Amino acid sequence: MFGYVKPVKSELKLRELNEFKAFYCGVCTSLQRARYLAKIFLSYDSIFFALLLTSLKGRTLSYRKRFCEIEFRKVAYFESDDITLAATNFILLLKYKLLDDVKDEKNFVKMVLLSILRKFAGENPHNPHLEERLKGLLTELGNLERYQVPSIDQPTNIFGEIVAIFFQNLEDISPEQKVVLVNLAKHLGRWIYALDAFDDLGKDAQKHNYNPFLLEFKYEESTDIRQFIDKIRPQVREYLFKILDDVILAYNLLELKTYKGILDNIVYIGLFEETERVLSRRRTCKRA
Amino acid sequence: MKRSIFELLNIPLDTPHVEIEILYKEYLEKYNPKRYENSELKPIAMAKYNELIEAYEAYKKQLEGDNALNAAMDNELIYSYTSLRGYRPGYYYRRHDGCCDDICQCIGCMWVTDTCCECMGGDCISCM
Question: What residue spans of chain A are helical by DSSP H?
Fold first, then answer.
């Protein structure tokens, strides 16, 4: 949903880059007719999910080709159950994100999008209770935002739980690996939420929206937001890196079999690079 | 069922000993229980750590048994396996999954292409 979990492309081998693109196109293809709509929102996070499952199960996928109506050229893509699952989960998350946005902003365009999307968000056959749990946790998160809880740990932990529920009840994975996977997801979710909160800091201060960092570090209206950001940056960096450390500890215990290069790139380089990018508030990763 | 070192490190069976040693050390660092203090993953890391050490010891034992045989074989292998004697790091080996893995096959492919081409009235390689 946020697109922070992505590889550093210049460090990938060309073969791996092609595979990554094929995964991306695979998820997009699996969205089926919803893809014309969802393509706008399709983020790298769901690709990471598909990659992780494929790698854990040790599957090697073979390329297929189709004509892509959006890019208007032939694209190579992968097809498998894991990729379909990633697409299903993605649509589910997208539905709730739009629902949330509509509630907050009363944005008409998003309202229309949501009503179209509702048709596509089907049941998840692997995990029937997933939607209920997701709803519960999102309400909890919403409550924290409503009551302006002045703590960064609480909302991040809840968001971690949200990410983790997608990794529970997966088939074909040993119980031990599942524990590690859920742990990984939890910390990754925490990282994503905290990073996103920092990314939106300026916007939220302006609009008086809820942002845990503003409350945690006691932002006052009179101070300049840039000075405030400069002041809290070292503390936030330390906080984010601590979470990333937990992510890596969990990741190291996974038994990955295929596409390990891409995943290593994402976890060992991509996450850190993305953290630094957001912290320095650059728009892109390119160095001057 | 005990897993071998090759399974644990996720490497092919013909990986050279030197490489195994490097990977083994890397994984030992990865799984080191000291890194997992105050973490709920500690028991899993501990189990993996011990499993790895056990597998490596089994591998070592087997290696020593084969060593005398291997030493003789190795010399033969390195110098007679291929006519190319220059050392290339493993990273750069060609992956054998194409249709033109060796030169004979490649020439064969070109020949067939040329014949087909000629059947249709064209000419792919004029001197063939």
Answer: 14-30, 35-38, 44-56, 81-105, 108-120, 130-146, 153-165, 175-199, 201-207, 212-216, 225-252, 260-264, 271-280
Sign of CA dihedral A187, A188, A193, A197: positive
At residue B68, φ and ψ (nearest 5 deg) are -60, -45
Residue A75's SS3 state is strand
Q: Given an 8 Å threshold on Cβ–Cβ distance, is B44 in contact with A246?
A: no
Close Cβ partners of A61 (under 8 Å, ≥ 6 residues apart): A22, A26, A54, A78, A79, A80
Nearest to A250 among B41, B47, B48 (CB): B41
Please tell me the predicted confidence (pLDDT) of residue A288. 38
First vs last Cα of chain B: how many Å apart? Answer: 58
Residues A236 and A256: their CA atoms lie apart, in Å, by 31
State the complex-level ipTM.
Answer: 0.79
pTM attached to this predicted model = 0.80
Best of A55, A252, A255, A264 to mutate (most B CBs within 10 Å, chain B) = A252
Q: Model confidence over A80-129: pLDDT tens digits?
A: 988 988 888 888 888 888 887 777 666 677 777 777 766 666 555 566 67
Residue A246, amino acid: D
